[in-house]
Design goal:
This protein has six helices and 17 strands.
């Protein structure tokens, strides 16, 4: 699950498709009466370690065409944020980090489709850049209203990682009932969501964890078989072969990266799928397919 932080104005830091506008009813720009001109945020001007993070005063953005301005209550802290901070993923600098948040709409830019039915004061969650701040201007299509039964904290914690998990099981490999799936880091944010969704789909899930203490957690998340992954001992591949009668799994969802990629290729069945979606141990090195 995402680490969550409260909005930054507190003393300490605690996270379309093109529209055919001529055919879609659009809303005029609207705002709350009082929005400050400056805010607190976390920005980087160069890439590197945590020392490049700067907690500083920044101008409050104004929502542009088809944007809404959200006053953040929570923002998510995810692995992808560290990739941008370290320079593994490139982005123009300076930049405010963060990819998801939840809070309240305080301003609506021009030409937001009325079909989205946004109003000032709506409680929303979003997946958008520049979330580590008191306020974030978001593309309207990346914002969703939070149902009354869901808290702002839960919505923020679930959004980016939940959408990632859904993309993996529906698009990277469309999981079918009875499939065998290997999920690395099964108690992590995306890993936990994968285990839950795979259980609901009727798949058989082999989950890897880093310690004995996490075995029961992975089972509670939905993993059918749990393996303690001591890199280099070969236990994961052994269990995969045992569970699949030597054939390998239909798909591997690998968010670890460099340290596990080669093994993931060994674990997958003929004509299976390896989806490498993270770099927790570092980026996968270049390799020849011949």
């Amino acid at each position: 699950m995402s680490t969550l932080v409260r909005a930054f104005s507190r003393p300490t830091i605690r996270p379309f498709t093109s529209l055919l506008r001529s055919h879609i009813p659009l809303q005029p720009a609207r705002s709350m009466a009082s929005i400050p001109s400056t805010m607190k945020g976390v920005q980087i001007e160069k890439t590197g370690g945590v020392e490049v993070l700067q907690y500083m005063d920044l101008p409050v953005p104004s929502p542009k065409d088809n944007e809404v301005l959200v006053k953040n209550e929570y923002v998510g802290v995810n692995y992808i944020d560290t990739y941008f901070r370290k320079g593994l993923y490139s982005n123009p600098l300076p930049m405010v980090l963060g990819r998801e948040g939840s809070g309240t709409i305080v301003s609506i830019g021009a030409n937001v489709p009325s079909s989205l039915k946004f109003s000032i004061g709506d409680s929303v969650v979003y997946s958008n850049t520049f979330a580590y701040a008191d306020y974030t201007a978001c593309s309207a299509e990346k914002v969703s209203k939070i149902p009354p039964a869901v808290s702002s904290a839960t919505a923020c914690a679930a959004f980016l990682q939940g959408l990632t998990a859904l993309t993996l099981v529906e698009e990277a490999y469309r999981v079918q009932k009875g499939d065998w799936i290997l999920v690395l880091a099964a108690t992590g944010g995306v890993g936990g969501w994968l285990c839950k969704i795979l259980k609901a789909k009727g798949a058989n899930t082999i989950g890897t964890v880093g310690s004995q203490e996490k075995v029961q957690v992975a089972k509670e998340q939905g993993a059918d078989v749990v393996v303690i992954d001591r890199n280099g001992e070969g236990e994961v591949l052994k269990v995969v072969k045992e569970c699949t009668n030597g054939e390998g799994v239909n798909a591997v969802f690998d968010g670890v990266g460099k340290d596990t990629f080669d093994r993931s290729l060994e674990c997958v069945a003929r004509k299976g799928t390896v989806a490498s979606f993270g770099n927790a141990s570092g980026p996968v090195e270049s390799f020849s397919i011949l």
